[in-house]
Design a protein that fits this description.
The protein contains no helices and eleven strands.
Length: 120
């Protein structure tokens, strides 16, 4: 079992930056592929970025990183826009090969989410 707790969300003005944290307990995150997702009101939960055995994805203004010593994954978000407003989730998936898991159905553990609101 892995427990994930996100933090760092809040209200930010457009153009600002936020760094979200996802603290894991129960097992080492180095044993898992980790991903960040977001879900805006009325929309599906979408994959943002992920990190595998040795590969991390970057999506424009969003970057994931991992600190194995702290058992924590981060999401750095820059130049935020009002359309980035959503609940942000981190999740853990079994490592499969060298790639990054993008399918939310393959993620076994989820955090409770943290709200990010970007004002114009």
């Amino acid at each position: 079992q892995v427990q994930l707790v996100e933090s760092g969300g809040g209200l930010v003005q457009a153009g600002g930056s936020l760094r979200l944290s996802c603290a894991a307990s129960g097992r080492a995150i180095s044993s898992y592929g980790m991903g960040w997702f977001r879900q805006a009101p009325g929309k599906e939960r979408d994959f943002l970025v992920g990190i595998g055995r040795s590969t991390a994805s970057v999506k424009g203004r969003f970057m994931i990183s991992r600190d194995n010593a702290k058992n924590t994954v981060y999401l750095q978000m820059n130049s935020l826009k009002p359309e980035d407003t959503a609940v942000y989730y981190c999740a853990a998936a079994p490592l499969r090969g060298l790639g990054i898991t993008v399918d939310p159905n393959e993620y076994e553990y989820w955090g409770q989410g943290t709200q990010v609101t970007v004002s114009s």
